[in-house]
Design goal:
The chain has a domain of about 220 residues: FAD/NAD(P)-binding domain (3-Layer(bba) Sandwich), CATH 3.50.50.60. The chain is built from eleven helices and 18 strands. Strands 1, 2, 8, 9, 10, 11, 17 and 18 form an eight-stranded mixed β-sheet that branches. An eight-stranded mixed β-sheet has the order 5-6-4-13-14-15-12-16. It has a two-stranded antiparallel sheet with strand order 3-7. β17 and β18 form a beta hairpin. The protein is globular.
Amino acid sequence: MARYSIFSLARHALRHHEDWPRAWRDPQPKPAYDVVIVGGGGHGLATAYYLAKNHGISNVAVLEKGWLGGGNTGRNTTIVRSNYLLPANARFYEHSLKLWEGLSRELNYNVMFSQRGVLNLAHSDAQMDAYARRGNAMRLNGIDAVLLDRDGVRDMVPQLDFSAAARFPIRGGLLQPRGGTARHDAVAWGFARAADARGVDIIQNCEVTGILREGDRVTGVETTRGTIRAGKIGLAVAGHTGHVAAMAGLRLPIESHLLQAAVSEPLKPLLDTVVTSGAAHVYVSQSDKGELVFGGDLDFYNSYAQRGNLPAIASFTTALIALFPGFGRLRLMRHWGGVMDMTMDGSPIIGKTPLRNFYIDGGWCYGGFKATPGSGWVFAHTIANDAPHPLNEAFSLERFASGHVIDERGAGPVPGAH
């Protein structure tokens, strides 16, 4: 994780990889910080980094109950895109995508961002019309979009079933060439190292068990490693947003559901783009190791568990084979689940709460990973200035009371997904 010569790498390999220098410190928690970020995933680490870099606030602690990236950051399928229709989503996710494009240089760490493109398949004339509309809206917002006909899709992904008997006939698709994938654990490590270098304390194995309040103001947290006072507290705990916010007495418009994904045995390079299908409820890409990485819809029961059940796996695997019949002979290597915090309109909450000095970054539904740098950037601004940035102004908690919801359907691999 630091800079090593070939000789250094060989030396440590011969010593059974022992005594590697730390990429970030392992500090004891201090009694108080200017800002405490709860959650050591991509969003929490990015927020801490941008607080230090953009706003000069480095007396910051990131508290993680387990290990860095052990939650949804390490349990997603790594897709990055900004192919949204509604202006609030388009502006925010395009800003995030632009940050992705320079992130390895920014962090001096290879996050393995691969702009291999994201292709949404259309299986009907109605879907083609919807994609034409979304593509036009994207281009009006300065976002790249290419509407492909059937032959254009065939040229890109000839492995799809284009036969007359196809379960999901291919009519065309909408391609965002600048979309792609990144390495999830490298993103967490890169932000962790960069935040640590700017003085942020990253404290693992430190679970928050309570939030301290004085009237309508938060003042600190109770943890398994003692009480930590804080001038401000930012919550970035993904699927656990609801129950951690409840420690401060807040009830949020969020439900937590399980979302599963899986990988196949490795193959030679075969699929050089991300393919998604809303009608089939499936998406797939190929990892650098050759595995097919794929998934689909929620398990549709409330859960905080990181494990799933067979019906969901059977559903998206069957859909994958219907689109790519040749994949039917592959072996399933492993599967996993992440906890999705689903808001009522499918869009995130990034902003202030009714409690003073208490801020929330949550409710990401299907789309938290691709928002990592953008979310950290605007959340840091919100915490530092006690006011949202124009890019996250629309993602307020108050929108659910005022009716200004951001309800965008069909923006992901499943209807209504993000």
